[in-house]
Amino acid sequence: MNIESSDLILTLGVEKMSSRNGTRKKAERNEGARDQARLPLSSRPQAQEAAQSSKTLFQLRTELHRLQQRDREWKMMFQMLSHDLKEPLLTLEGFSQLLEGSEGLNRDQKRFVKVVREAVGSLHQLIESMQSISKLYQESDQQTHVSILEILHSVESTLAEQLKRTRGQIQLPNEDLVVRGDPIRLYQVFLNLIANSLKYHKKNVDPVINIRFVRGRDNHRISISDNGVGIHRKDLERIFVPFTRLEGVDTEGVGLGLSIVKRIAESMGGQITVKSQQNQGTRFTLVIPREKE
After folding, report:
1. CA distance 239 to 250
2. DSSP per residue over 257-293, as a string?
3. Higher-confidence residue: 16 or 143?
């Protein structure tokens, strides 16, 4: 046998072995596919993904339950705390009234009693405001169609004394705007905003409050503009934070009015924005989603 014949036989042998190896690998792949098909569902990738999703959903439900339980405990604790705070305040208020009405007090003693009564009144106001905020985290069950003009007329009547004292004016739109919401909460919004406009008016300048409605396809915008003292730029971002008091402004209250307004707006799916310049006035804009027909 010559060299060429040997090479030819060797080449044929190698090709035959390669062909057998390829056939074997193909058979193994087919057998692997059949084995995969025979595996139970829980071992397949889709089933693993479903199991992971189920685990994640269970964890989310557990976390939601934990947060709901904490929220209930927090509300119960707050109610107990409010009650426990009110009781000694009522006692203190009663005795301070007796002292104030008694005879024989000198000027300084009367002044001290007055300070105590004012402090008690401030604490009462603080507790009531905090209770109002806690209630805003509960879903309102008073959803109905509300006339904004009727709400504004009610606010105007409530603030009649302040309007008279400051010689203020409220300019209302000619056409009404009807939205779906809680009338009591909407009343709180406009009472706070308009009362603030009267409170922060310029000296020797009659306050003028202009209210306008803008109807949109997706939402309604209600703007409340005034010609008051305005708000400093550095204070604009924090005026909605609870217990915020503006520097250089001496007014009554505990600084919760605008935080209540913000919370109510958000509970309706809307928002409240503000634009202001010092000595140029302020404009608050309440955005309320339009009811889908």
Report:
1. 15
2. HHHHHHHHHHHTT-EEEEEEETTTEEEEEEEEEPPP-
3. 143
Tell me: do 206 and 81 sit in the same domain.
no
Cα–chain-centroid distance for residue 233? Answer: 22
- For residues 89-95, give the mean pLDDT: 80
Read off the pLDDT of residues 2-27 as tens digits, 9 standing for 90 and up: 444 444 444 444 444 445 555 554 55
Q: Which residues fall within 8 angstroms of residue 254, CB to CB, at 6 or more apart?
A: 122, 125, 126, 129, 243
Has residue 185 got a pLDDT over 70?
Answer: yes
Owner of token pair 């934070």: 241
pTM reported for the whole predicted model:
0.61
Domain carrying residue 92: 45-136
Domain count, the chain: 3
pLDDT of residue 139: 61
Q: Extract long-range pairs of 147-151: CB within 8 Å, 24+ residues apart.
A: 147/176, 147/177, 147/178, 148/176, 148/177, 148/178, 148/179, 148/186, 148/213, 148/222, 149/173, 149/176, 149/177, 150/176, 151/183, 151/186, 151/187, 151/190
